[in-house]
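BTB domain-containing protein: structure tokens wanted.
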Amino acid sequence: MPETDAVNPEKELALSPTSSRSVTETVNGSHKFVIQGYSLAKGMGVGKHIASDTFTVGGFQWAIYFYPDGKNPEDNSAYVSVFIALASDGTDVRALFELTLLDQSGKGKHKVHSHFDRSLESGPYTLKYRGSMWGYKRFFRRAALETSDYLKDDCLKINCTVGVVVSVMDSPRLHSIQVPDSDIGIHFGALLDNQEGSDVIVHVSGEKFHAHKLILAARSPVFRSRFFDDSNGQNSDIVIADMEPRVFEAMLHFIYRDTFIEDDVLTTSSSPESSASDTLAAKLLAASDKYGLERLRLLCEAHLCKDISVDSKILEL
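Answer:
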């Protein structure tokens, strides 16, 4: 019989070459810091700074530090200092920075100190720990600053851009499936709108609202107790006497959709001369607290805080 060559399994199972790619890029973000009352900040002392609010870029928090009398004794007589500081925990955070003193004359002649255009020369700057800073002890000569277009109405404006360096492995995928955002609120909201399957009518100051006991009970411990622990839980009609219909409607909107109603609706009041406590947001805050809707309570508080300022509190006083 003729001889046959043995089959080499390695040749039969030859694998396709694989590949991967490392991508290093920056996640960028900016923050504008307005310093009102520059002349009053002078004289606070060498090494003393005014800090901006913290802001988040690349998963880390940052803050701008402005030293009106300089950061170090040798510089206080002639220069102001500006630094960007890592304000959250982190080790060996690599980033690029840009500090810009904004020209307030409209001429666009901003004073820019940028690390971005020097990245090829020295690479990103590494911040070792919380409190590490990058910036300039001699950011601007004080005498020149006080006669320049950068200072207007005793106000300075500093813009900071941070680019946090991140590296990811980009490997080819056989399949990619885009998972949509949750739409459960849309479906529950449709139940509220078309009243399908509703089993309870809530009477609020003469208005009727059709709802579903299970949904109300699932969202609010007060409704849960009323429907399942109360001897009157089998009733298909309940009365709420201490709430306006518009407030209850807004609360129902949240219970079913888990979203806030529009901002322009929240700021409406019962009359043009009403106080802040008479806005829908304020009344919805009280309702959320009464019915145990913790997330709604926090949303209301956050919304009301946006409208609180020093000037508004002075006017109220």
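The two ends are 111 Å apart (CA to CA). Residues 245-257 form the longest helix (13 residues).

Cheers.
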